[in-house]
Amino acid sequence: MPVLELRKYEITAGRRADFDRRIRDVAMPLFRRLGFRLHGFWAADESPETVFYALTWTDTNEMTDQWAAFGATPEWQQARADYDTPVPLLARIERHVLRPAIAGPLVPLAAGPAAVWDWERQ
């Protein structure tokens, strides 16, 4: 069953530019290379140091395998070491795995290329 993964990152005060740089320069290229289906990034109006992003997966097995592959890349391991020293970049991480609920119509999670990040245009 398809799942939506919603991630919420609370960025350490004063580190938003570093966060944006790590996402842009390291995470996004890895997401693309590994075939992550990214739906976008959003910042909270009430707290610009809080960022959300959403990914879709065919099932939780794919999600687990892809995150393991991501975490094992030398690029990500180096970025974590670089950006989390001397102070961690993220103060808090929340991850929610969401499944379709009973109420309301759904747009299919596998709605095709228009429903996910267009890697060619970014």
How would you describe what is shown here?
With 122 residues, the chain is an alpha+beta fold. The protein has a single domain, classed as Alpha-Beta Plaits. Helices cover 34% and strands 30% of the residues. The protein has 3 helices and 4 strands. It has a 4-stranded antiparallel sheet. It is globular, with a radius of gyration of 15 Å. The model has no long low-confidence stretch (mean pLDDT 87).
Write a brief caption for the model.
This protein is α+β, with helices and mostly antiparallel strands and 122 residues long. The chain has helices at 16-34, 60-72, 74-83, and strands at 3-11, 37-44, 47-57, 90-98. It has a single domain, classed as Alpha-Beta Plaits, CATH 3.30.70.
What's the topology here?
Elements: E1 3-11, H1 16-34, E2 37-44, E3 47-57, H2 60-72, H3 74-83, E4 90-98
Antiparallel strand pairs: 1-3, 1-4, 2-3
How would you classify the quaternary structure?
A: single chain
Strand order of the largest sheet: 2-3-1-4
The number of helices is 3
Question: What is the CATH domain class?
Answer: Alpha Beta
Q: Regions with pLDDT < 50 over 5+ consecutive residues? A: none
Radius of gyration: 15 Å
* Helix and strand sequence: EHEEHHE
Number of strands: 4
**Proportion of residues in helical segments:** 25-40%
Largest sheet: 4 strands, antiparallel
CATH-derived topology? Alpha-Beta Plaits
- Specify the structural class: alpha+beta
Whole-number total of structural domains: 1
Mean pLDDT: 87
Shape: globular
The CATH architecture assignment turns out to be: 2-Layer Sandwich
Distance between the termini: 29 Å
Percent in strands: 25-35%
